[in-house]
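[Structure tokenization] protein backbone as discrete codes

[Encoding] learned vocabulary of local backbone shapes

[Begin record] amino acids and matching fold tokens:

___
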Amino acid sequence: MSLPPSQQPTALVTGATGFTGWYVAEALARKQYKVRTLVRDAAKAGPLAELGYEIAIGDLRDAAAVARATEGCSHVFHIGALYREAKFGDEVYHQVNAGGTANVLDAALRHGARVVHCSTVGVHGDVEGVADEEAPFNPGDAYQTSKVESERLVAEYAARGLEVSCFRPAGIYGPRDTRFLKLFRTIRNRTFRMFGKGEIFYHLTFVEDLADGIVLLGEHPAAVGETFILTGPRYTTLNELVTSVARAVDVPPPRGRLPLPPLLAAAVLCETVCRPFGIEPPLHRRRCDFFTKSRAFSSEKARRLVGYAPKVELDEGLRRTAEWYFSQGMIA
């Protein structure tokens, strides 16, 4: 049964022009929230407005704009962040991801809104075995460090009485994603090369499962004051993942492998040449993490406390993602 507009809660979503934020907005709309989106670039707001979402123009770094966007909201889903673009200096990550989070938390506290904050499993760095929320912080770059800073701010505001939950997602993929497009494309056209042994773990999370979990954290009473890892049903080795993607794009799995050291050296060189000019390097060390950093995580806490239950198995999610790439002409 549809709720009358006067009874529909209003939720602000930051980062709704991005991949995960788009799905969070959709999930909220399905649950009859009025969706308001904070959009930095007005030129990108058109598709959101067409879906009936309210548009608030502003930058996360602008405290006044964030406060205006938050007014009248019962919930804030803070998904927006600056993500791993090597052309930016470390201070920009701090300004957007930590400073912007402080603005969101402050506005929510003043307006009485409940917050769900997006962090990353990257705060744990390169993990051994299967990590849970108790694994130590071990950030390896400016992005991950800024997310550690943002989590500390969340804890501070929770102590001040803000109703807030934090989640750490892993390997988000699905239709509309372009982060994993290169992997699918190179496997499809037989140009993919494995660097290293490929025996590290990789953990993917289908975006629709994640969005449902994020909304759940905004509604379940047991989520308040807690931090959760949200992942897909299972992790796999990198070799197994590549084989599964090959199956999704209907080609034989790639064979052979190359040594890691030359790749890492080339990444350092690209960063050194490009960064002074503000150019995004074609290869950088963070991209090499795909071949070097192990990622396997447990979502048991989220299952136990709030009933988080991802439904989309890896092969199905990869197939649905591949179908979307084919439909968009991104791979042929």
